[in-house]
């Protein structure tokens, strides 16, 4: 299956974020350590409707910008591109947003959903949901200063304060152009069941586009979430790792061995090209585990392939296994 560019087809946009047309209703979630440029660009070519970068701290942008630049890598074909940033200081977030805006993203997004202790307990990520007035200040300040639409990604809140509807309204009232909602609380992290009804409550409370996130595991779940919640689009995270074909509306059983071989080689080549041979292979391994699990390789075979120390040996062992099947 050849990868073709799915954006810009001769059809109407599914929806708009500000003035930005979005041609599609399924997109790759920003995931730290996973949605880097090599993977993001592959998902975009298979139909991911928006290309979100991994989140970057406002402090990193303002103090060590050159080190952060690789995270903002993109190609024109990936547009619309969304730069996601996080922090807890409105002035620093503004400074960071104005700096990355010079790299010409289509949209800038504020992460208000990361549950990691190192982020949330410092008042950023999901920690921001505990300070609604600060959220209002951030969105009012940034939306007035930026030339591109400003959006936010949230959770349902914290177990003792499920305030996603309030935060979504604050985002809308202070210039936010869209809101993405992960249907879990901070404490749930990525466990338990996502609450799609709660996403529907957010959708009913605001007029800006809502993107639903959580427990979209199969291609068929995309339409099911949209039907249940009324959201404009669906964000897919962990289920896309090892299965980027979900953005082409393919179920796992429809992914052939040849499609898998082509994708693994393409992803590995892109990772090595982007990071260098050693780092590129190391970072690719976590993706490879999911790609190979997709085809139910025996554990011993998977392990032997994964532990290869060069990209060439990795592909050689993989090809040997597939050749043995013929």
Could you explain how this protein is built, in words?
By secondary structure, the chain is α/β, with parallel strands linked by helices. The chain folds into 2 domains: 15-252, Aldolase class I (TIM Barrel, Alpha-Beta Barrel); 256-325, Non-ribosomal Peptide Synthetase Peptidyl Carrier Protein, Chain A, CATH 1.10.1200. Helices cover 43% and strands 13% of the residues. Helix 4 (90-101) packs parallel to helix 6 and helix 12 (299-306) packs antiparallel against helix 13 (311-325).
In short:
The chain is an alpha/beta fold. Helix content is 43%, strand content 13%. It has two domains: 15-252, Alpha-Beta Barrel (TIM Barrel), CATH 3.20.20; 256-325, Non-ribosomal Peptide Synthetase Peptidyl Carrier Protein, Chain A (Orthogonal Bundle), CATH 1.10.1200.
CATH superfamily of the largest domain: Aldolase class I
If you consult CATH, what is the topology of the largest domain?
TIM Barrel
Task: List the total number of helices.
Answer: 13
Q: Give the % helix.
A: 40-55%
Main sheet attributes: strand count, strand direction, barrel closure: 9 strands, parallel
- Tally of DSSP β-strands: 11
The geometry reads as globular
* Fraction in beta strands: 5-15%
Q: What is the CATH-assigned architecture of the largest domain?
A: Alpha-Beta Barrel
Q: What is the string of helix and strand elements?
A: EEEHEEHHEHEHHEHEHEHEHHHH
For the record, what CATH class of the largest domain applies?
Alpha Beta
Overall structural class, as computed from helix and strand content, comes to alpha/beta
Give the C-alpha Rg. Answer: 20 Å
Distance from first to last alpha carbon:
20 Å
Taking pLDDT < 50 over at least 5 consecutive residues as the criterion, the unreliable ranges are: 4-10
């Amino acid at each position: 299956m050849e990868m073709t560019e799915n954006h810009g087809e001769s059809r109407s946009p599914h929806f708009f974020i500000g003035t930005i047309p979005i041609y599609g209703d399924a997109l790759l979630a920003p995931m730290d350590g996973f949605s880097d440029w090599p993977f993001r660009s592959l998902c975009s070519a298979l139909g991911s409707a928006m290309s979100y970068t991994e989140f970057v701290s406002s402090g990193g942008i303002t103090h060590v910008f050159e080190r952060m630049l690789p995270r903002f890598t993109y190609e024109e074909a990936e547009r619309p591109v969304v730069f996601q940033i996080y922090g807890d200081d409105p002035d620093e977030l503004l400074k960071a947003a104005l700096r990355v805006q010079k790299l010409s993203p289509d949209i800038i997004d504020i992460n208000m959903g990361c549950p990691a202790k190192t982020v949330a307990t410092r008042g950023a990520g999901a920690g921001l949901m505990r300070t609604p007035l600060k959220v209002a200040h951030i969105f009012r300040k940034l939306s007035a200063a930026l030339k591109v639409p400003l959006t936010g990604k949230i959770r349902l809140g914290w177990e003792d304060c499920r305030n996603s509807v309030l935060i979504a309204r604050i985002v809308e009232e202070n210039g936010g152009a869209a809101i993405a909602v992960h249907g879990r609380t901070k404490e749930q992290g990525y466990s338990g069941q996502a609450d799609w009804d709660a996403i529907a409550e957010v959708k009913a409370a605001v007029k800006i586009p809502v993107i639903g996130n959580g427990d979209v595991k199969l291609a068929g779940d995309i339409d099911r979430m949209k039907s249940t919640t009324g959201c404009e689009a669906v964000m897919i995270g962990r289920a896309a790792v090892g299965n980027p074909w979900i953005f082409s509306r393919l179920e796992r059983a429809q992914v052939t061995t040849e499609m898998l071989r082509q994708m693994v080689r393409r992803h590995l080549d892109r990772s090595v090209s982007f990071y260098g041979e050693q780092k590129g292979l190391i970072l690719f391994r976590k993706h490879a585990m999911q790609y190979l699990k997709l085809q139910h390789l025996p554990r011993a075979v998977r392990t032997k392939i994964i532990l290869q120390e060069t990209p060439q040996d990795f592909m050689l062992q993989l090809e040997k296994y597939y050749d043995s099947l013929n």
